[in-house]
Design goal:
Largest sheet: 6 strands, mixed
GO biological process, one term: nervous system development
Strand order of the largest sheet: 1-2-3-4-5-6
CATH superfamily of the largest domain: Alpha/Beta hydrolase fold, catalytic domain
Number of domains: 2
Membrane topology: Single-pass type I membrane protein
Number of helices: 18
CATH architecture of the largest domain: 3-Layer(aba) Sandwich
CATH topology of the largest domain: Rossmann fold
Radius of gyration: 22 Å
Distance between the termini: 30 Å
Number of strands: 6
Subcellular location: Cell membrane; Synapse
Mean pLDDT: 87
Order of helices and strands: HHEHEHHHHEHHHHEHHHEEHHHH
Structural class: alpha/beta
Family: Belongs to the type-B carboxylesterase/lipase family.
CATH class of the largest domain: Alpha Beta
Keywords: Cell adhesion, Cell membrane, Disulfide bond, Glycoprotein, Membrane, Signal, Synapse, Transmembrane, Transmembrane helix
Helix content: 40-55%
Length: about 450
């Protein structure tokens, strides 16, 4: 398959992970092949969808987690522009749905691709200084040998993923968003209430809550892993601990577990999503934000957990109407079926019109004889001032300023507490000190980028 950037790519590279996103940081392997695969698929869809009764000017892409961050990156890439089916400048797609991930998430972009490429090469016997020879050696390996290697990135980051290559991703996503590169797209995005469950589950003895020493250690490790060792590290750590301590119930291990879950959720998912929604809506572009509060009943999920990462997926794809699966062994109820019908209506409405409320009204009388509460709710567009969002659960409502205090801790206060001198030297001057850039690209990774350049 030809690479639009002037070279040839072997099909074996166009997979996910190390064989889809490997980059040596130079011309030997520029990276972003996984994104180019997605773009090529969108080109094919744009050119052929009419033959299947579809509209090439009404194409929506959506994804969850890392898929959502890729969706966001696609809205920022000039490769998504231009629709060869017509003379339209509307692009290969017109709408995007980002579920539980954006390009500002700390795990959305790989900052040290060359480091991890060499790490992989050493593990499979391709430890060559010349990057062209190194890539050639890797290409001769069986793909399974490559994907089976355990390459551990810095925590909360990725080893192999999209990279800022000056081409497919021309600049860091924060700057591209500030420049309005994604203003021509309608965007729906949101998060689940308890996204950070997997991080809490890594803490010893969390079944009965989190002990004080485990809480302190978790916060300290979190600061070290994300922000390195700045001069103000102690102030940063203590501020985060203070903000995530429920002072009315601070001796309760279960309360500590709840606030620690909120910490991981807010930093890794909520703050990046709100920052993205703020930037997109600032250009007057249609933006819809949701917070998902429901999850199915299953023995695999602890009873204290909120809607965790991925818990919205069965409702998006209508699984409650089919029944439990191996991946989602849930005890689906009538309420689950109703909520799934509601979610699918919102998602498909948005894909059709850019408005989740139109054209199909919320009606689940085929499940319940009584009207559902969503029939009385109008999902209002998001804007920076009011930050309106839809609370998706069995008791839906439109609310404002989702977790605003904690979001602004991460977007406003933490960047000021943490020394940004080293960061701003590495970022173009169009980025303001204290903006959300430091959330996605913390100092520890920027120092690594500097040392490897």
């Amino acid at each position: 398959m030809n690479d639009d950037r002037g070279g040839n790519m072997r099909g074996g590279w166009r997979f996910m992970g190390g064989v889809g996103f490997l980059s040596t940081g130079d011309q030997a392997a520029k990276g972003n092949y996984g994104l180019l695969d997605q773009i090529q698929a969108l080109r094919w869809t744009s050119e052929n969808i009419a033959a299947f009764g579809g509209d090439p000017l009404r194409i929506t892409v959506f994804g969850s987690g890392a898929g959502a961050s890729c969706v966001n990156l696609l809205t920022l890439s000039h490769y998504s522009e231009g629709n060869r089916w017509s003379n339209s400048t509307k692009g290969l797609f017109q709408r995007a749905i980002a579920m539980s991930g954006t390009a500002l998430s700390s795990w959305a972009v790989s900052f040290q691709p060359a480091k991890y490429a060499r790490m992989l090469a050493r593990k499979v016997g391709c430890n060559l200084e010349d990057t062209v020879e190194l890539v050639s050696c890797l290409q001769r390996k069986h793909y399974k040998e490559l994907v089976d290697q355990d390459i551990q990135p810095a925590r909360y980051h990725i080893a192999f993923g999209p990279v800022i290559d000056g081409d497919v991703i021309p600049d860091d996503p924060q700057i591209l968003m500030e420049q309005g590169e994604f203003l021509n797209y309608d965007i729906m995005l949101g998060v689940n209430q308890g996204e950070g469950l997997k991080f809490v589950e890594l803490i010893v003895d969390n079944e009965n809550g989190v002990q004080a020493n485990d809480f302190d250690y978790a916060v300290s490790s979190f600061v070290d892993d994300l922000y390195g060792y700045p001069e103000g590290k102690d102030i940063l750590r203590e501020t985060i601990k203070f903000m995530y301590t429920d002072w009315a119930d601070r001796h309760n291990p279960e309360t500590r577990r709840k606030t620690l879950l909120a910490l991981f959720t807010d930093h890794q998912w909520v703050a990046p999503a709100v920052a993205t929604a703020d930037l997109h809506s600032s250009f007057g572009s249609p933006t819809y934000f949701y917070a998902f509060y429901h999850h199915c009943q299953t023995e695999q999920v602890p009873p204290w957990a909120d809607a965790a990462h991925g818990d919205e997926i069965p409702y998006v794809f209508g699984l409650p109407m089919i029944g439990p699966t191996e991946l989602f062994p849930c005890n689906f109820s009538k309420n689950d079926v109703m909520l799934s019908a509601v979610v699918m209506t919102y998602w498909t409405n948005f894909a059709k019109t850019g408005d989740p409320n139109q054209p199909v009204p919320q009606d689940t009388k085929f499940i319940h004889t009584k009207p559902n509460r969503f029939e009385e709710v109008a999902w209002t567009r998001y804007n920076q001032k009011d930050q309106l969002y839809l609370h998706i659960g069995l008791k839906p409502r439109v609310k404002e300023h989702y977790r605003a205090n904690k979001v602004n801790l991460w977007l406003e206060l933490v960047p000021h507490l943490h020394s940004l001198n080293d960061v701003t030297q590495l970022i173009p001057t169009t980025t303001k000190v204290g903006t959300k850039t430091s959330l996605a690209y913390p100092a520890s990774e920027n120092k690594l980028r500097e040392s490897s350049s």
